UniProtKB/TrEMBL annotation:
<feature type="binding site">
    <location>
        <begin position="182"/>
        <end position="189"/>
    </location>
    <ligand>
        <name>GTP 2</name>
    </ligand>
</feature>
<comment type="similarity">
    <text>Belongs to the TRAFAC class TrmE-Era-EngA-EngB-Septin-like GTPase superfamily. EngA (Der) GTPase family.</text>
</comment>
<feature type="binding site">
    <location>
        <begin position="294"/>
        <end position="297"/>
    </location>
    <ligand>
        <name>GTP 2</name>
    </ligand>
</feature>
<dbReference type="Pfam" id="PF01926">
    <property type="entry name" value="MMR_HSR1"/>
</dbReference>
<dbReference type="GO" id="GO:0043022">
    <property type="term" value="F:ribosome binding"/>
</dbReference>
<dbReference type="GO" id="GO:0042254">
    <property type="term" value="P:ribosome biogenesis"/>
</dbReference>
<dbReference type="InterPro" id="IPR016484">
    <property type="entry name" value="GTPase_Der"/>
</dbReference>
<feature type="binding site">
    <location>
        <begin position="118"/>
        <end position="121"/>
    </location>
    <ligand>
        <name>GTP 1</name>
    </ligand>
</feature>
<dbReference type="InterPro" id="IPR015946">
    <property type="entry name" value="KH_dom-like_a/b"/>
</dbReference>
<dbReference type="Pfam" id="PF14714">
    <property type="entry name" value="KH_dom-like"/>
</dbReference>
<feature type="domain" description="EngA-type G">
    <location>
        <begin position="176"/>
        <end position="351"/>
    </location>
</feature>
<dbReference type="InterPro" id="IPR027417">
    <property type="entry name" value="P-loop_NTPase"/>
</dbReference>
<dbReference type="InterPro" id="IPR006073">
    <property type="entry name" value="GTP-bd"/>
</dbReference>
<protein>
    <recommendedName>
        <fullName>GTPase Der</fullName>
    </recommendedName>
</protein>
<comment type="function">
    <text>GTPase that plays an essential role in the late steps of ribosome biogenesis.</text>
</comment>
<feature type="binding site">
    <location>
        <begin position="229"/>
        <end position="233"/>
    </location>
    <ligand>
        <name>GTP 2</name>
    </ligand>
</feature>
<feature type="binding site">
    <location>
        <begin position="8"/>
        <end position="15"/>
    </location>
    <ligand>
        <name>GTP 1</name>
    </ligand>
</feature>
Length: 435
């Protein structure tokens, strides 16, 4: 989907606006996973058009006394990466020097830019907003992100300006698309180089298919796959990858265009929130995931180190822990074949289709044995189960009172599905439907 970046000085109201737009959807996700994280990336939609939203401000540490240079960098990166830019200013502060700097950068841009004047909640402020014409960005929108007024008109114009969606091919025998993602210096390029070894394995080089991620088709180890390479492009880019949100933006695109994400983790560094965020991105986009613990050659080992390390990683990945973890070394090429083999397995798990008759035969007795607990005195009767014809596994459980089935029970069903059919590395969805 298209990427919309929100830029602007600290404290103009970017994150309030961001939260308002993603709230409806993300609230559900948080309720399911039971975790709330500090998020600067989310999905939103308007008039049936979905887009990804990035709050660039969220990636600046100590946002209050941020340096101008830092903001400029964000804007430059947003210009490079996003499909549309929302430039937010605050009517209370009037036009500031920093606003002018940002505007100067944005005036050269051919991508759609929306100047949004925030905190306009009365007629007087509507008049004050006129001052922002001076930024030379033309027409502006006024909003009050605290109560949402003005947001609808802004979103109408925004989605109209987004580029046409590329048709997502869902060919039957499509070749798996693997995205290599992770933090800077985790070893993504090294892994890709080790994997490919020699140029002759490249079948076709279809650069530009996904606009900025290089999509290359390989035939290696007896498998055919497309690699969505984020590291390679970044190395060619003028801009240095010193901002976390830059790698997040790269990851967003790569992940959205992949079937399976290979998350490369540096074994010599701590598994931190940034890695969790990338993992979460893949999970949120319902992509297959394989975790590659790289630089394993550098780790002092005794007989229990892999086990302990794996336990530690799984703890960080909760609640979605049914994920393969492979210990590799891009340097010594240790287990890089295993990594690809596992990615192919995850791909197969993700494209698996289970017949309705089989699902019902295996699951209905299990449900009979342990039915959904009664809720407010109501009994739920699950009648039949179906896998939906979607690109990723989704299961609909048809029942009399879908609203009375609680999360805990849905998780129980998900676990049963995982035990029975092996969905390792694949986020699956369980829905209750009215029948
Ligand atoms: P990227 O930013 O994720 O593409 O990371 P690079 O592939 O550029 O790797 C960052 C650094 O880690 C480089 O100096 C690599 O030589 C080193 N490196 C990558 N993989 C390994 C590995 O498996 N073992 C060791 N010892 N070093 C590695």
């Amino acid at each position: 989907s298209s990427i919309v970046a929100i830029v602007g000085r600290p404290n103009v109201g970017k994150s309030t606006f961001f939260n308002r737009l993603i709230q409806r959807r993300e609230a559900i996700v948080d309720a399911v996973s039971g975790v709330t994280r500090d998020r600067h990336y989310g999905k939103s939609d308007w008039n049936g058009r979905e887009f990804s939203l990035i709050d660039t401000g969220g990636y600046v540490k100590g946002s209050d006394d941020v340096f101008e240079a830092e903001i400029d960098k964000q804007v430059v990166l947003a210009i490079e990466e996003a499909d549309a830019i929302i430039f937010m200013v605050n009517v209370e502060d009037g036009v500031t020097g920093m606003d002018e700097d940002v505007a100067r950068l944005l005036r050269k841009v051919t991508k759609p830019v929306f100047l949004v004047v925030n905190k306009v909640d009365n007629g007087k402020r509507e008049e004050d907003a006129v001052e922002f014409y001076n930024l030379g960005l033309g027409e502006y929108h006024t909003i009050a992100s605290i109560n949402g007024s003005g947001t609808g008109d802004l979103l109408d114009d925004l989605v109209k300006a987004l580029p046409e969606e590329e048709e997502e091919e869902v060919e039957e025998d499509a070749i798996p698309r693997f995205a290599v993602v992770g933090r800077p210096n985790a070893g993504k390029s090294s892994f890709i180089n080790a994997l490919i070894g020699e140029e002759r394995y490249i079948v076709t080089d279809i650069a530009g298919t996904t606009r900025d991620a290089i999509d290359t088709k390989y035939n290696r180890f007896g498998f055919e796959f497309n690699l969505v390479d984020t590291a390679g492009i970044r190395k060619k880019s003028k801009v240095k990858e010193d901002l976390e949100f830059y790698s997040v933006m790269r990851s967003v695109r790569a992940i959205e265009h992949a079937d399976v994400c290979l998350l490369v983790v540096d074994a010599t560094r701590t598994f931190d929130g940034q890695i969790q965020n990338i993992f979460w991105l893949a999970q949120r986009n319902r992509k297959g995931i394989v975790v590659l613990i790289n630089k394993w050659d550098l780790v002092e080992k005794d007989h229990k180190s892999t086990n302990e390390y794996e336990k530690h990683i799984k703890k960080q990945l909760e609640p979605f822990t049914d994920v393969p973890i492979i210990f590799i070394s891009a340097l010594t090429k240790q287990r890089i074949f295993k990594a690809i083999e596992t990615a192919v397995e995850v791909y197969n798990n993700r494209t698996k289709r289970i017949k309705t008759s089989e699902l019902n035969e295996t699951l209905l007795p299990i449900i009979d044995n342990y039915p959904p607990p009664a809720y407010k005195g109501k009994f739920v009767k699950i009648k039949y189960i179906m896998q939906l014809p979607t690109p990723q596994p989704q299961f609909a459980f048809f029942c009399n009172l879908p609203q009375y089935v609680r999360e805990g029970y849905k998780r129980y069903l998900e676990n049963k599905l995982r035990e029975l059919y092996d969905f390792k590395g694949v986020p699956i969805s369980v829905y209750m439907r009215k029948k």
